[in-house]
Amino acid sequence: MRFRQHGPSLVVQAPAKLNLFLEVLGKRSDGYHELETIMVSIGLHDTLRLQPDASGGISLRCTLAGEPAEGRRRPVERLSTGDDNLICRAARALQEATGCRQGACIDLTKRIPMEAGLGGGSSDAAATLVALNRLWRLNLPSDELHRIAAGLGSDLNFFIDSPSLAVCRGRGEQIEPVPMGRPLHLVVVRPREGLSTGAVFGNWEGTATPQSSDRLLDALRSGDLGTVGATLHNALQAPAEQLSEQVRKTLRAIDGTESVAAAMSGSGTACFAICRNGASARRIGARLRAQGLGRVFVVRTGL
């Protein structure tokens, strides 16, 4: 997460994430699933511009990246800008937790695809909490922001402190940052169709022998790219492939390149290739883009 002051406004870059490992350990009594996952931030981001509003109201506008800031605005498909939006809910939760009477006008420029398993909505909401804590001069400590974030969703906590790499447990709110031996060069492909998280989890049938993330964590710490590629795991990939031919087609296409390994992120539908270096990532990205599989992003870990 990156910040810059622009007059009275605070501008934030909110990064996407990838799940290099995701094991579902079972259903919890609160309706969530118990998870163990390894997540990395990547250089694909939404941008939020937040400006104080003395009226106490929270307003949100959204445009797609590349559109003019003024004039006619084309709404982002399927994205509400009302009180049900996670950004608005985060701002309201911060007001309620602190008794703050200030408001905010928020402009969101969207780059991270929705229904992709890339955490865009969670990252935007976490960025809202961190940014408004600064903009409203609340000075809440990180652990209090984590408490508020945990009440809003499962992935928000990963983005609050913006680590490059972390292992996350519980329903995703228990965050353990991990040092990374080398950056990863990646190609991310978001097929033309999305999948709802609920549908994918509903298609998950469970496993008697959950996999451990230990080997992958050791490989990420040491920078052993071969072992990283060999130990990627996503328990939701098979359920998503059953629901989406486009996920299956995208993974096959990535497997046909010079990539080290391919996997799906989160509950999909975005899939990614781990590449040996930046030049290889650019070649693979151009090849996959030419196949018309969907939106293709050449990125590396970090922001």
Write a structural description.
This protein has 303 residues and is an alpha+beta fold. The protein has two domains: 2-177, Ribosomal Protein S5, domain 2 (2-Layer Sandwich), CATH 3.30.230; 185-300, GHMP kinase, C-terminal domain (Alpha-Beta Plaits, 2-Layer Sandwich). 31% of the residues lie in helices and 31% in strands. The strands form two sheets. Strands 1, 2, 3, 4, 5, 6, 7 and 9 form an eight-stranded mixed β-sheet that branches. The protein has a four-stranded antiparallel β-sheet with strand order 10-11-8-12, covered by helices on one side. Strand 1 and strand 2 (9-27) form a beta hairpin. The longest helix has 16 residues, at 120-135. The model is unreliable at 68-75 (pLDDT under 50).
